[in-house]
Each structure stands twice: as structure tokens, then as C-alpha cells.
From TrEMBL:
InterPro entries: 6-blade_b-propeller_TolB-like (IPR011042), Bact_OuterMem_StrucFunc (IPR050330), CarboxyPept-like_regulatory (IPR008969), OMP_bac (IPR006664), OmpA-like (IPR006665), OmpA-like_sf (IPR036737), TPR-like_helical_dom_sf (IPR011990), WD40 (IPR011659)
Protein localization: Cell outer membrane
UniProt keyword list: Cell outer membrane, Coiled coil, Membrane, Signal
Residue ranges of coiled coil: 102-129, 494-559
Organism domain of life: Bacteria
CDD domains according to UniProt: OmpA_C-like
Keyword Hydrolase applies: no
First-listed, main subcellular location of the protein, grouped into a coarse class: membrane
Lineage, uppermost ranks: Bacteria, Pseudomonadati, Bacteroidota, Flavobacteriia, Flavobacteriales
Domain OmpA-like: 583-704
Transmembrane in keyword set: no
Signal sequence segment: 1-19
Source organism of this protein record: Flavobacterium qiangtangense
UniProt-recorded name of the protein: OmpA family protein
């Protein structure tokens, strides 16, 4: 029977291990094919039994790619803590985005600065970018935003206006799921701009010619409405194109509007099976197409490109370069009617993952991109931004918390211009005469930095006022002086509160007034010194008497309290311990007789349990101090008896010390025959029982 049970256990264990191995293999296969929503539950099950680098890395990445940044942060943190030597910069980068998503901006920026391989110039620029973000944040909410009723519980994004309709991407209501995020494949939907803000607005498929069983999104239309460009998976004429890893990349398609319908759908010639092109946008003159791609030559995972449109042909893709692109991800370009390039980036320092940035085209070059600010940008992904300069109205998409689904479309109205300024404060005040309290004219006021470099020098007018405009978070020193007056200064350390007015008002004192006051003060000082001497003598005498009186009272009170507490401790001890008794004004610990061999003093075996009881009592009361008194009967020589009792007392003390009683709590004394219970004079007057009473060891409690 045992063999059968063992065999069953082995078979079960083997099957369990095989099942685990199969689940992990399936998870890895799903992950490689970007089926992240399918891989996550298998990896979550796998980590219950093993937490290898590969499993944790893939699980964290799967959460990251499906925008579950809370769980991504959890597993990236575990990965960095436990596999530091195996991870590269990309994981610190993703970890920083996950941190921002959960509201930990400071730690995210510190991770980026400390763990990324930055040169000294890059660190300086990084710190400057943090300041710029703070300047943008100080503008507050630049936009009014509204979550549109057309949003669903799935992902809706990429709104673009086409005539009187709003065109956007949203999952179809089919059973076919996209394994990346476990949602249905995207189609282009259309809704009337007159109805889309109403809760009862109904969206319809944009075009059965454009929509397929694969993804379609991010449409852009020419002004005459006769041509459109949009993003679709590598799918044309019913055939799905894939790369060598069986991944179907995104491509940009075009279509023509003829005779009331869309036709001539074709993949643009710069697409490829091996990389993605996506998110088309048109320049104002419609002669340039902007898009995002991870094609060879990209600085990062996706870059923004432009390409010239020549009738029915295209030029060569041009990377917009490091002013716009980073070594990470730039996507969703949009060119406004005033020629500004808006796009989303997670490589430029921002408030979250993908943030919306804007750049202006000047002299054929794009300027350094600037974050558009709150509340369009959040700690999550914000993208697919469009705006009309004429109305300051537009749309963007975001996966921020509080939406209806994964990604939601928001309508925006820009309320404040994007004017980025460094934080500034004011240092101001009035220089006055300390005595008269009146403003001082012709006073010199100097502003210095923390290195004592003179920054500004002014001379006050009749009102004595001064004012300096300075940068926040710096230290300054303000010095004031005037002929025939004392000098004065104030040091200020400024915080980051914008437009704060720091008062540096100061008083200066006339030197002539000081001389007058010094003469008066000298006379008063002499009189005061005399009065003080007399008073001090009187106080010293009173104090001496009081101290003597108080000392005597304290001694009496302390003695009284000590006596009361001692009595309480003795009474408590007597009530609790039956072996403690009073005897002729002494406190004794009663014990059975302690026997010693004739003329010897070592502790006999049968005496140790008796002594151990006393030891345990002393350990129970750590403050107890005991004297061991050893006594003999009157028989024998007095000196001999005294010496023998002393040795027996000391031997007993050593036993106590060896058993954990501190030396200062146990003392010993040999009394010989000097203290008898029964007076045996002469010695023949007592019988053996009476001599035995006199021959004893006593344990006298000296303190408790």
C-alpha cells in the first residue's frame, strides 16, 4: 500500500511540474508574440513557485505594455532590487514612468538622473528640464477638459474632425480579441459633432471599406475631404503581412473619396513588413506628411518623421532629429493651422509616461519642444492631441484614472497661453531712521548673491524705498548704508513660491544719536551697578537662609519617605513570603538547618537545596541585601569557633555568588559562640538539642 501511495505522489508531482513548465512555455510564447494580456495570468501563476529574472522581467514588461502601471511599478521595483546586475537603462526608464503613474515624481526623476548614463552636460540639462517643468506646472490648469460621452469601457482615442463628423478609433463589438490588451480590434468610428457631447450620441462605423478585422486608427483628411491617411496593421487585400517573428506591424494607408465612398485603399510605399509606420499628420499646405516610425535609423523606439508628398509619389522619410526625437518613444504628431508641431513623447522629461509637447517651425527648423502642461498632461499616457488656433478648441486622448475605459477621448479648450518663465520673487523694503522712524533719502542699498558678488546698487529717494526682482531658490544679502549712519544688512534664503514679496526693510541709526545715548547710558550704568550690588547682597543673604532651611526640610522629608517606603516593602515581603519573619527587630529568612562536617566549611550536598531557596528568593527581589551569619555552640575554644564560623559564612557566600547573586548583595560574618539562642553557661548546662539550636546559619535581610 505504501508503494502505491508513493507512486501516486511521484506521478502527481511529475504532472504538476510538467504543467508548470508548460504554462511557463505558453507564457513566454504569448509574450514573444506581444499577447501580453494572455501572458500575465500565466506569469502570475509561475511566480508562486519561482521568481527568476526572466519571469519577473516579462511580467513587469507585460503590465507596462498593457498600461497597468501600478503592478508594473511593483515588479520593476522587485526586479531592480533583486537583479540589479542584470538590468539595463531601459528598465530604470520604465520604472520611472511607473513611479510617475502612482504619483511619485521625485523618486522617478531621481532614478532617471542617477541610473541613466548621463554626461555632465546632460545632467545640467536634466536639472534645467526639471526647472522648466516646475515653471509649466506653476501655470496651473491651462485647459478645460471634458470626457466625451462617446467613450466606452474599452480604448477610444485619436479624434479628428472630418466635415461635421468626429472620426476616432474604438474597438469593434466582435468576439475577436487583440491579445496585447485583451480588447477587440480597433475600427474607425464616426459620430456627428452636433451630437457627440450628448449622452445619447450613437457612433457608427466610418467605412466598411476602411475598416477590416485588423486595427484601424488615427485618420487625417485633406482640406477638400477627397483623401485620407490612416493607420492599419500590415493588412492589404485580405492578406496579413508579418515580420520574421510573426508580428504584424502598423502601416500608413491612404484612400480616396470618390462618388460618395472611399476607394483606392493602399499601403504607402515607405511602409515595410519589418517595422511600423503610424499616426499620419498633414502640414498646412498638405505637401508634407508627418508620421511616427521605428524604422532603421530611428534614435529611439519610435521617432517623428516627415516625408514630401509629390502628387501620387513620396520623397524619402526624414527623421526630425534630436531636437524633437529622443532615444525612447515619440508618436502621434499633429500640425496645427499656425504651423506648430504637437506630438507625444515619453523620452522628454514630463509629468508621466507619454506627455504632449509642442514645437514651432522657425526658418525651416523645429524649436526645442515644450510640455503643454496641465491638465492635458498627467502622470499617465496623454496623446493624439489636436487643436484649432482659431477657436482654441481640440481633442486629446488619455488613459488616466477616472476615465470610462482604457483610453478615453477628451475635448479641450485652451484658456491660458503657454508662457514659460522662471520662478521670480521680489526683495523690497524701506530704509528708515531708527530713532525718528522716518524714511531715509540717499541711503545706499546693495544686493549681493551668496558669493558676495554685487548684483545691483541703488540710492533711495525721499520715500526710502527699494525693490529688486530676483530668481527663486537663491540666497541673497541686502546691505544698507548712509553717511553718518550705522550700516545694516539682511540675509534672505528664497523658496520656490512665485511672485512672493520678501521684506528686507532696515533701520539705520545716526552716529550723533548713538553718542548721546552712550553718554546717558554710561551714567545710568554706574547708578545701576551700585543698586545692583546692594540688591545682590540682600538677595544672597536671603537665598542662603532659604537654602539652609530647605535643605533641612528635604532631609527630614526624605528620611520620612524612605522610612515609610521601607516599612511598606517589609510589610509586603512579610505578607507574601512565609519564610521571612521578624525576630528581635531583625528580618530573617527561615531555613532548615545548614549542616557542615566536623571542623569543615564546604557546602554539603544536602544543604544546597536549602540555600537555593534563599537564592531564588533573592532573585525574586533584586533589591534584597542579605547577611549570612554563621554561629557555633559554646563548646571548644572561642577563637577556634570564631574562625570556623567565619569560614563557613564565607563558603556559603561564595555559593550564592556562584549561583548568580551579585557580590554587593550578599555579605558574610562569623559570630562564633558570641550570639547564643540558649545560654549554655557552663556548657554542661545544655543538652545536645540546645547546643544544636545555637549551632546555626542565619540569613538576615539588611535591605529590601
Amino acid at each position: 500500500m505504501k508503494r502505491v501511495l508513493l507512486l501516486i505522489a511521484v506521478i502527481f508531482t511529475t504532472q504538476f511540474c510538467v504543467a508548470q513548465s508548460q504554462d511557463l512555455s505558453r507564457a513566454n510564447a504569448y509574450f514573444e508574440r506581444t499577447f501580453y494580456s494572455e501572458a500575465i495570468p500565466l506569469y502570475e501563476n509561475a511566480i508562486k513557485n519561482e521568481r527568476t529574472f526572466e519571469i519577473i522581467r516579462n511580467l513587469a514588461d507585460a503590465y507596462y505594455y498593457t498600461n497597468d502601471l501600478k503592478n508594473a511599478e511593483k515588479w520593476y521595483r522587485f526586479l531592480i532590487k533583486n537583479f540589479t546586475n542584470k538590468i539595463d537603462e531601459e528598465y530604470y526608464f520604465r520604472f520611472s514612468h511607473a513611479l510617475k503613474a502612482i504619483g511619485n515624481q521625485e523618486e522617478a526623476n531621481e532614478i532617471l538622473k542617477s541610473q541613466m548614463s548621463l554626461s555632465e552636460n546632460e545632467i545640467t540639462n536634466f536639472n534645467r528640464q526639471i526647472v522648466i517643468l516646475e515653471n509649466i506646472a506653476s501655470l496651473g490648469n491651462r485647459f478645460e477638459i471634458k470626457n466625451l460621452p462617446i467613450n466606452t469601457e474599452n480604448s477610444d482615442f485619436g479624434a479628428a474632425q472630418f466635415g461635421n463628423k468626429l472620426i476616432y478609433a474604438s474597438p469593434t463589438q466582435t468576439n475577436k480579441k487583440y491579445k496585447w490588451n485583451d480588447e477587440s480590434y480597433l475600427d474607425l468610428q464616426a459620430v456627428s459633432v452636433l451630437d457627440f457631447s450628448k449622452s445619447e450620441a450613437i457612433a457608427q462605423a466610418f467605412s466598411n471599406v476602411i475598416n477590416t478585422k485588423m486595427h484601424e486608427s488615427n485618420a487625417v483628411f485633406t482640406k477638400d475631404g477627397r483623401k485620407m491617411y490612416f493607420t492599419r496593421n500590415n493588412y492589404n487585400n485580405g492578406k496579413k503581412g508579418k515580420d520574421k517573428n510573426k508580428v504584424s506591424h502598423l502601416q500608413i494607408f491612404s484612400a480616396d473619396f470618390e462618388n460618395g465612398k472611399w476607394t483606392n485603399v493602399k499601403s504607402l510605399p515607405f511602409n515595410s513588413d519589418e517595422f511600423s509606420t503610424e499616426h499620419p499628420a498633414l502640414s498646412r499646405d498638405e505637401k508634407t506628411l508627418y508620421f511616427a516610425s521605428d524604422m532603421p535609423g530611428s534614435l529611439g523606439s519610435f521617432d517623428i518623421y516627415s516625408i514630401e508628398i509629390n502628387a501620387e509619389s513620396f520623397g524619402k522619410p526624414i527623421n526630425l532629429g534630436p531636437t524633437i526625437n529622443t532615444k525612447h518613444k515619440e508618436q502621434f504628431p499633429f500640425i496645427s493651422e499656425d504651423g506648430k508641431l504637437y506630438y507625444s513623447s515619453n523620452g522628454k522629461l514630463g509629468f508621466g509616461s507619454l506627455d504632449v509637447f509642442v514645437s514651432e517651425l522657425k526658418d525651416g527648423k523645429f524649436s526645442e519642444a515644450v510640455n503643454v502642461g496641465f491638465p492635458v498632461n498627467s502622470s499617465y499616457d496623454d496623446f493624439a492631441y489636436t487643436i484649432s488656433p482659431a477657436t482654441n478648441e481640440g481633442y486629446f486622448s488619455s488613459n488616466r484614472p477616472g476615465g470610462k475605459g482604457g483610453d478615453d477621448i477628451y475635448q479641450i479648450i485652451e484658456k491660458k497661453p503657454l508662457i514659460v518663465q522662471d520662478c521670480q520673487q521680489f526683495i523690497s523694503g524701506i530704509i528708515t531712521d531708527e530713532t525718528t522712524k522716518l524714511p531715509l533719502e540717499s541711503a545706499i542699498v546693495i544686493l549681493q548673491d551668496e558669493s558676495k558678488n554685487e548684483l545691483i546698487r541703488i540710492t533711495t529717494l525721499a520715500d526710502g524705498k527699494f525693490n529688486f526682482n530676483v530668481n527663486c531658490e537663491n540666497s541673497f544679502k541686502v546691505l544698507a548704508s548712509k553717511e553718518k549712519y550705522t550700516e545694516n544688512f539682511k540675509s534672505l534664503k528664497l523658496n520656490k513660491e512665485r511672485d512672493k514679496v520678501n521684506d528686507a526693510s532696515m533701520t539705520l541709526k545716526s552716529l550723533e544719536e548713538i553718542k548721546k545715548e552712550e553718554a546717558i547710558a554710561l551714567q545710568e550704568t554706574k547708578r545701576e551697578e551700585e543698586r545692583a550690588k546692594i540688591k545682590a547682597k540682600e538677595l544672597a543673604e536671603i537665598k542662603k537662609k532659604e537654602e539652609a532651611k530647605n535643605t533641612e526640610l528635604r532631609k527630614k522629608e526624605d528620611a520620612k519617605i524612605a522610612e515609610i517606603k521601607k516599612k511598606e516593602r517589609i510589610d509586603n515581603l512579610l505578607s507574601k513570603e512565609k519564610d521571612v519573619v521578624k525576630d528581635k527587630g531583625r528580618l530573617l529568612i527561615k531555613t532548615e538547618p545548614i549542616y557542615f562536617d566536623y571542623d569543615l566549611w564546604y557546602i554539603r550536598k544536602e544543604s544546597k537545596p536549602i540555600l537555593n531557596k534563599v537564592i531564588e528568593l533573592m532573585k525574586k527581589y533584586p533589591e534584597m541585601v542579605v547577611e549570612i551569619g554563621s554561629h557555633t555552640d559554646v563548646r571548644g575554644n572561642d577563637k577556634y569557633n570564631l574562625n570556623l564560623s567565619d569560614k563557613r559564612a564565607k563558603s556559603t557566600r561564595e555559593y550564592f555568588i556562584e549561583n548568580g547573586i551579585p557580590k554587593d548583595r550578599i555579605s558574610s560574618r562569623g559570630y562564633g559562640e558570641t550570639v547564643q539562642i540558649v545560654k549554655c553557661v557552663p556548657e554542661e548546662s545544655c543538652n545536645e538539642e540546645q547546643h544544636e539550636l545555637n549551632r546555626r546559619s542565619e540569613f538576615v535581610i539588611k535591605n529590601i
